[in-house]
Amino acid sequence: MTIGRARARANIALAKYWGKSDLALNLPAVPSVSVTLEPMITETRVTLVSHAERDVLVLGGSEANEGESKRAARVLERIRIEAGAKDKARVESVNHFPTASGLASSASGFAALVAAARRAYGLPRDPKRESALARWCSASAARSIYGGFVELAAGVPGDDDLAATQLHPSSHWDLRLTVAVITEGRKDVGSTDGMGLSKETSPYYRAWVEAAPAMARAIREAIASRDLGKLGPLAEHSFASMHALALSTSPPTLYFQPGSLAALATVRKLRADGVPVFATMDAGPHVKAISSADDAPRVKKALEETQGVLRVLEARPGPDVEVE
Ligand code: DP6
Fold this sequence. Notes:
The chain has helices at about 65-85, 105-120, 125-135, 140-145, 190-200, 205-225, 230-245, 260-270, 295-305, and strands spanning about 5-15, 20, 25-30, 30-50, 55-60, 60-65, 90-95, 150, 165-170, 175-180, 280, 285-290, 310-315, 320-324. β11 and β12 form a beta hairpin. Strands 1, 4, 5, 6, 7, 8, 9, 10, 11, 12, 13 and 14 form a twelve-stranded mixed sheet that branches. The protein has a two-stranded antiparallel sheet with strand order 2-3. The chain is α+β, with helices and mostly antiparallel strands. It is globular. Ligand DP6 binds near residues 106 and 140. The site of ligand DP6 has 15 residues, from α4 and α5.
């Protein structure tokens, strides 16, 4: 029996990816910049099973639904071809944070799956290849192969080798991400569907694709100089532009809940009181506050006291995917 194990972390985009330049290869239409989060970990074990008829995906103890299983089986098939192997796989994956609610569990999930499966099938470690395969499953997953601060460039249609690159390791900047969890359930509109709708129906899609590279560049520079006063407003502009785009689809894609607005108001109030803290949101209702390590306890307390916030998670820049 051949086994591969991997631990990958979720990531939060400071410059958002939203929209695809090549649907079949899952290439992003815009560059994105993220931070990999400790301790938002997915642990995955891949076991090769001789004579099995199909791959089996078990998430948190229960067999995954058809859509999730299909995505996993597709990438496992590619890895088998690369390895010249035939055996199907049993994949067991556990998330240490809420699944499918905008906390980017698909990112850590696919990153861990690809890394663990390549190990199980006897392929050597190759972060660039792992990142490209993870990107093909879910573009944000390409970034979770690397720790610290990570960029995924926009994809030129046809370029199936597109992989993320690490900008800085986690030691570069002790930023804190305080996550206000607003719901425990699954989100209504997944990011793949949401961005498809944006491309098809929003009058603002082209403007977003044109504006995003300059936003990502400025965010990269603010990270390089560890300048929270610069990074914060840029990250807010990126997330708000993405949500404006989502809102301008037909029908509108609305990820905000009352608790999200309350948490955003808390972040603004803290800022008015002199705390440099900034917000970002993904394709779900949670609000992620970006601050220094020194200010994180105050941010956490204020978010915990906010109506509509169920609980608060704390995260910091984390390491590369770990494979054994
Ligand atoms: C809002 O990577 O989940 O979190 O490539 O279709 O699987 P697919 O989309 P996914 O989208 C993430 C969107 C986002 C922004 C980001 O993480 O950059």
